[in-house]
Here is the input.
Amino acid sequence: MHELTVSPWASLAYLVAGVCFILALRGLSSPASSQRGNRFGIIGMTIAVVTTLVTHVPLRSEAWPPGNPHDWMIDWTTVVEILAAIGVGAAIGLVTARRIAMTAMPQLVAAFHSLVGLAAVLVGVAAYLNPQAFGISDLVVPLIGQPFAVIHPVSRIELGLGVAIGAITFSGSVIAFLKLNGNMGGKPIMLPGRHVINLALLAAILGLIAYFVTDQSAWIFWTIVILSFVIGFLLIVPIGGADMPVVVSMLNSYSGWAAAAMGFTLHNSAMIITGALVGSSGAILSYIMCRAMNRSFISVIAGGFGTSDAGAGSGGSAVDRPWKRGSAEDAAFLMSQAEQVIIVPGYGMAVAQAQHVLREMGDKLKAEGVRVKYAIHPVAGRMPGHMNVLLAEANVPYDDVFELEDINSEFAQTDVAFVIGANDVTNPAAKTDKTSPIYGMPVLDVEKAKTVLFIKRSMGGVGYAGVDNELFYRDNTMMLLADAKKMVEDIVKALD
Amino acid sequence: MDFIAILSIFVLACFVGYFVVWAVTPALHTPLMAVTNAISSVIIVGALIAAAAAGIGAGSGVAKALGLLAVVLASINIFGGFAVTARMLAMYKKKERPVAPAASK
Here is the structure.
């Protein structure tokens, strides 16, 4: 209908929205400023949405062909449809946010990423079908036949990238969700020749995007979309369940780049700024996770690492080595006599939903004058920072919770290290055994404590990396074999 | 805006993103993922444009329907994302001082 002219006021508003998003992330530098930061995020989004609604009021015309501006009037039906769509989404979103258990946060984040990916694809398809509305094409009116729109070459690249990244984000996030939610086994599923297939698909997608510049036929566009869905699925399927922190961060990053690509297509600074922020955020989190596992990003994405995270059954401990067993009463006694106890939580604590009784145990110990601290390894859990959220939910004050770098030196002066639900991150073999698959990974120095209490359901079974934990067989380690929640409840009773 | 202008904004925003995200404390990495997911739903801008657009040709009706669907999906993320982030952030509390001198924050 007309070239897309964005009024300067709208551009300014989008810039303000982008700045609000920067401030939202800045607020996360500490819990004290974080809630204010979240409010900035909400303000920024409101500005962006209202600006768009006000500058793109749906219009319709009775006259055909529509030429005279006076023929156009507000299309109230569409206005209602749009507001209803926002309302439906808001209702679903708010209800989900209120009811989701904190232990299900990884799956929720994966599910949300899939929605962003799909939305990006839908917007891309809409832009392809109606490019004039987005101002990315020139209208060609032939002498005979219908007028048609020719999409600008640069817009075709941006559009192609946007739908490709969006589609990968969608299908990859769906698989991540299924793995995290337990619908799909955590074991890596490996197709033969998968590296070749994936690289071939990637080459095909990039090649088609380049070809799309010369020929905007529908088959090219749709093939790009379909191949992208496929590669998203194929990329994530071979990655093991406990590597999901890296996968979810990576998909977080991709959802940002998809938004940025759409931002380039629409010349919208809010989307571009947001895309850059989210893209870098995901990339940095992926890097932190990989560094904490001492594995390269490529090796994680290549997949095939890791046993099933249930870890039960088939024997990993080949040799029958002596180990010490303890009871809840032993544990209660040892800890109540201690000056300092460091608790090391892991994914097992989340699975057993033991965070609340754990905090009760911590409170009882504090009442007896014991100093209680919590040590978090960066990749404990299935998502960056997951343990911190679970402890916060259980009302553990955040200044009792420490990251690996800050607390590792304290284990040597600690009387008791209490390990619940963590395994590979406490294995001293990572420091000493060059043949171990986890060699070189930064671990918590729990073995330096005077006594180590380790909660595990049974002695059989290995951690995610498929190795037996050297910690179990040390003289100062006492194994507490029971369900995590039950064991902690028994300890709480014994402390009375 | 021309391509170089938006490219400049993008490049600078990437740098800003790098420094801002490194400053996020590890304890808040999960809320970080939740809030970045919420703001990436600013793609709703594109969805609203598609849904509101009148158009010529057969494609525009489908484009509008897809736009409305994208509005629903993005709205779920926006409202859900900010709400779940707020819920998480409210859980983080400091140790309570045992004897409270009336020092207000």
